[in-house]
Amino acid sequence: MSADSTPISAEQFALAIQDLPVENIYSKAHEIRNSICHLERSNQQLKAYIDSIKTDTSLPEDTRQEGDKDCSDAIHENAIVINRQKERIDLLKQEVERRGGRWHEADNGGKVNGSSEESVPNGEAQATSRGTGGGRLTDDELRRQMMERMAEDDNNEDEGMHL
Length: 163
Known about the structure:
GO biological process, one term: proteasome regulatory particle assembly
Number of strands: 4
Region (Disordered): 99-163
InterPro entries: TMA17
GO molecular function: protein-macromolecule adaptor activity
């Protein structure tokens, strides 16, 4: 990101997502969570590097005391971005709930809807409406249903333009 560009405000983000289909809101939440995971992993690696400098007795004492300022700055900037992204996930949740829906995207820590007893196991996705009964789907079941829906869409080619 260049020094001149700034992310959109929370208010602009909330306005921008109002017209998104619910599926896109969940997709955006997944994308943001993925980004948060990458930033957190990066921060762990940067911290490990800084710690290695501070404990490396082959380096001069002043270098060990300083650590790596660029890495420290990057960790701080990543933390700011992570907090902004968590705020956006909250805005996505609020938008789904504003529409009368129930948020079922897994929260940090493997929680669904803030309740630890509703955790979603790895490899499973919470089912959405469209006749699935609200249960959980395995990756294979979800893939099968998506393929069926795509085939249905292919059979309805005369129902307008698809981009």
